[in-house]
Write a structure and sequence with these properties.
Blueprint (H helix, E strand, L loop, with lengths): L13 H15 L7 E2 L2 H8 L3 H13 L3 E3 L5 E3 L5 H20 L3 H13 L1
Antiparallel strand pairs: 1-3, 2-3
Helix pairs in contact: 1-3, 2-3
GO molecular function, one term: DNA-binding transcription factor activity
Pfam families: GntR
Keywords: DNA-binding, Transcription, Transcription regulation
């Protein structure tokens, strides 16, 4: 069952809350590959959001490989599962490669990561 709650008081934009909620449900196994998700209009009405807000979240999820749209059949959780972990791993590897090229040590690299996470 696909359920999402959007906080209209949050500083995080609604489309981003929706995007993150879908990713969290994929990671937890609540949404599995092939699960059909509501149409843009249906979800917008359910969440009291503008259809463009939901459409933006869906577009970003599709670009990230989390969703796949099958024309008139609708949108589904992609069969690739959770591509965000793969992307995160590639980003981490690229970061380590850059740090090594710059001649920085691991402690300095971790300080940069911690600083970026606090931002």
């Amino acid at each position: 069952m696909f359920t999402v709650t959007i906080s209209h008081d949050s500083p995080v934009p609604p489309y981003e809350q929706l995007r993150l909620a879908v990713i969290a449900q994929v990671r937890s196994g609540e949404l599995t590959a092939g699960t059909k998700i509501p149409t843009v209009r249906a979800l917008a009405a359910q969440l009291n959001l503008a259809p463009n807000t939901v459409a933006r979240a869906y577009r970003e999820l599709e670009a990230d490989g989390v969703l796949e749209t099958r024309g008139r059949q609708g949108s589904f959780i992609a069969s690739s599962g959770d591509p965000t972990r793969d992307a995160a791993g590639r980003a981490a590897t690229a970061y380590v490669s850059a740090i090594r090229r710059l001649g920085l040590d691991d402690e300095t690299a971790l300080r940069y990561v911690k600083s970026a996470l606090e931002y």
